[in-house]
Amino acid sequence: MKRDSVLFFTASMTVACLAMFAAAPEIDLLAAAHFFDAGHFIGRNPAGDFWRRVCYDAPYLLLALLLVAGVARWRGRISRGPSGRAIVFLLASLALGPGLLVNGLLKEHSHRPRPEQTLEFGGPWRFRPFEAFDGACQSNCSFVSGEVATSAWTLAPALLAPPPLRAAAVGAALLFTAATAALRMAFGGHYLSDAVFAALFTFLIVLVLYRWYLRAPSPR
To answer: What percent of the chain is predicted at pLDDT more than 70?
Structure first.
């Protein structure tokens, strides 16, 4: 019941945010303006570049470590590590969320210009609300954020943590996702709604697949 409640809450938050940003698209412009100063976005500096690289690489490094641990367990080198079912859960959630939904579908078909590309922040194109899908961007567009989605995927390995550590791991995944979102906004790469929906859509996919992971029969 608790897992159902979390999934229902996340779905409800997604619907509420869809309604909020559709009714008040100016929220995106107001939020982006907080990261824009003296004609440029404040994240574009060497420190910002460094932390963006860290946030980009960290989920893939975590996945690589878990895959190594899973293979080591399968070969009998270690006694504890991700099971085969856990590895399928991790790979499927990454492939379906950040991979297919975000980078394969939304970013390629939303046509939403990034903040740095819009007239309000010195770019050449009109601002478009997230649901319009009629902007001037043709490829790798603003809606939604691929990097935020990949950071949000870290909820999947967090849910596999041992029970004494699971709450802390989930909290760390949420904080990491928020930090990546703030950084992408500071770069002028994404609006607030791009980050919010990247996280929520990925969380939903992770939570649905986590239900499958828990209900699937254990191998003998």
So the answer is: 97
Under CATH, to which class is 2-215 assigned?
mainly alpha
Is the pTM here over 0.70, yes or no?
yes
Q: Give 118's strand partners.
A: 125
CA distance 159 to 163: 9
State the DSSP string of the chain. Answer: -HHHHHHHHHHHHHHHHHHHHHH-THHHHHHHHTTEETTEETT-SHHHHHHHHHHHHHHHHHHHHHHHHHHHHHTTS-SSS--HHHHHHHHHHHIIIIIIIIIIIIHHH--PPPGGGBGGGT-SB----TTT--SS--SS-SSS-HHHHHHHTTHHHHHTS-HHHHHHHHHHHHHHHHHHHHHHHHTTS--HHHHHHHHHHHHHHHHHHHHHHHHSPPP-
Identify the sign of the CA torsion 66, 68, 74, 78.
negative
User: Phi/psi at 36 (nearest 5 deg)?
Assistant: -115, 125
Q: Tell me the domain boundaries of the chain.
A: 2-215
Q: Please write the tens of the pLDDT for every residue from 192-214.
A: 999 999 999 999 999 999 999 99
- CA 149 and chain centroid, separation: 2
The token pair that represents 61 in the structure block: 């490094």
Residue 131 phi, psi dihedral angles, 5° rounding: -90, 0
